[in-house]
Amino acid sequence: MKVAIIESSSFMVSMWKQCFKDSDYQVRFFSGTPADINELIAFTPDFLIGPGVPHDFNPREVIARIKATPGLSQISVIVATSLDDREIRNFWEYNSIDGILVKPFTPEQVLDVLNQFQHKKLIARREFPLVIIVSDSITVRAFLERELHGMGFTVLTADNTERGHGLILENSPDLLLVDIEMPGHSGLRLGEELAAQSKTRQLPIILIGGQQDDDSLPHGFSVGAVDYLRKPVNRDELSRLVGKIVVQHRHARRRSAIVLEDDPITASILGKLLSEQGLGMNLCKTVEEFQVHLSVTIPDIIALDLTTKQIDGPALIEKLRRDVLFEALPIVVIAKEGQRRGILSCLSSGANDYLVKPFGREEFQVRMKSLLKVKQLLEEIGHKTHILEELAYHDSLTGLLSRRYFDSQLDTLIDQARRRGEPFSLMLIDLDHFKQVNDTYGHETGDLVLREIARLIKSNVRLVDLPCRYGGEEFCVLMPGCPVFKAQEVAEQVREACAYCKCSAHEIVQTVSIGITSFPDPSGVDMLVRDADRALYDAKKQGRNRVVAAALPE
Predict the structure, then answer these.
(1) Average pLDDT for the chain
(2) d(Cα 514, Cα 434) in Å, to the nearest integer?
(3) CB–CB of 548/539 below 8 Å?
(4) Alpha-carbon span 102 to 109, nearest angstrom
(5) CA distance linking residue 523 with residue 529, whole number of Å
(6) How far apart are CA 416 and CA 311, in angstroms?
(7) 306, 343 in Cβ contact below 8 A?
(8) I want to staple 305 with a disulfide (CB 3.0 to 4.6 A). Which of 11, 202, 261, 462 is the partner?
(9) CA 230 to CA 69: how far, in whole Å?
């Protein structure tokens, strides 16, 4: 990538050289003379960096000329300045600036800003989202590549983490799918390496693993994984998950901040500084305008300038904190020297942090990053806790609720039915002669049959019912608010659907036997499962492929 820097100060030229000496960027320096601008255009740079207060050229004219040149209309323009450069608005057209580097800055900060723009350019130019798959399994790679191609993604694959890492650095993908366990170098280790690099630490990662890898998930989430797919990968789950994450990643830089600020200079500087962190700014000049914005938008962060006319910072913050939508949203107050008391009042009312004018770019970045990081961590903790709960309470083969969920919820649901005086039914389902399917066609076909029966159960019970895999070839359905006669109707629907369905390429007709019991039953709550099991036994004894309800008291 090429960087053109317009700079006449020899001191600044040496400083820029120091910033780029260990980078891969191709850098050239130019003065603002017409001849040098011609050379700059011939250089065809990807980035242009200029001083906040130029002395030998007119930025508006130069930028207009450069962007009118074929091939340079998308050049990124960055201004190097300080918050004291108040004349900046007299020289630069703010709409033409993509970013601001506020002095003093370090080489790392310069490269971080350029890397962000480079990544954004690469993604914007890409017609289809790019997914990289890293797995040592040919079967896994082939399945995922075929499915993702069919969904409209561009796909690259690697059979080990070293090749995968190289592909990631070369291509800046939208998403990485990586196997947890591979010979020599695990997917978790690759996640650690990517998290340590500024260029790749924001890359969303989906881990792929078997049930034996569940214990590795907390560590995987700690190094950047955003979700998990369990083998064998379900096509529908893959489509839902990948599509959602790619959209989130592509729009991650469209996060927003609502800023209450009536000083145009401060507002312009804040807009550029927020843009560097991927935040769009919704500027409000009055409290009324601010309240209108909040009625239609939930931002990622709120900034309030206490010097804004007619603002009562503490009262406004207290009002926000009383609203469930904004109770945990980061709020930063901006003040001038002499407003310390106002800052303390805002902090006690619920503000998270503050900035005192004049503040530098580095201070602004550190405070914003800290607030956004806390917000992101809270969101990720909630999301990943949900994933772990989902894994614990869902059967990996069928996607139904698990035996663990059944055991944890049965007493709760029955207690709820007792308190409300409502009926509660339990359905136990067993696949008839299923052992013959495994013995004749193999366990892979047996798994396909189990998944198909699970789908039929789920699609034929009521929306409020809770179908679970009870174990092996047994399923159960928790049916809150359902009397026994209604449970029998639902069970007959399930039985018929299974009897008329041909499973797998072998067109196997897999019938089921079903036992039902209801609460309150003659033996009491503790015997509910036993009674359903006895009814199931009777269904099998009577010839299978039928529904039997446990006897209820007269």
Answers:
(1) 83
(2) 14
(3) yes
(4) 10
(5) 10
(6) 50
(7) yes
(8) 261
(9) 51
Please give the helix or strand (H or E) that residue 307 lies within, else none.
Answer: none
CA distances to 9, 83, 367, 377 from 370, in Å: 35, 21, 5, 10
Domain boundaries, the chain: 2-105, 126-250, 278-378, 403-549
Contact predicate 89/268, CB 8 Å: yes
Q: Which of 125-129, 147-151, 466-470 has the lowest mean pLDDT?
A: 125-129
CA distance to 437, 442, 533, per residue, from 453 (Å) = 13, 17, 19
**Domain 2-105, CATH:** 3.40.50.2300
Q: What is the mean pLDDT of residues 192-211?
A: 83
Structure tokens at 151: 């969904």
370 neighbors 353 (Cβ within 8 angstroms): yes
3-class DSSP state for residue 280?
A: strand
- Between the two ends of the chain, the Cα-to-Cα distance in Å is 84
Question: How would you write 503-537 as a 3-class SS string?
Answer: ECCCCEECCEEEEEEEECCCCCHHHHHHHHHHHHH
Residue 287 in contact with residue 263, Cβ under 8 Å? Answer: no
What is the share, in percent, of the chain residues with pLDDT greater than 70?
A: 88
Return the pLDDT at 247: 58
In the prediction, which pLDDT does 176 show?
92
Task: Specify the length of the chain in residues.
Answer: 554
Give the tokens for residue 222: 């700690």
Judge if 2-105 and 126-250 fold alike in CATH terms. yes
**What is the signed CA dihedral for 473, 478, 484, 489, rounded to 10 degrees?**
-60
Write out the two tokens for 147.
Answer: 């499915």
Q: Which fold has domain 278-378?
A: Rossmann fold (3.40.50)
CA distance 537 to 213: 37
Q: Is 79 exposed, middle or buried, given 0-12, 13-18 or 19+ CB atoms closer than 10 A?
A: buried
Nearby residues of 541 by Cβ (< 8 Å), 6 or more positions away: none
| Right CATH for 403-549 from 3.40.50.300, 3.90.700.10, 3.20.20.70, 3.30.70.270 | 3.30.70.270
Q: Which residues pair with 428 in a beta bridge?
A: 476, 515
Superfamily of domain 126-250: Response regulator (3.40.50.2300)
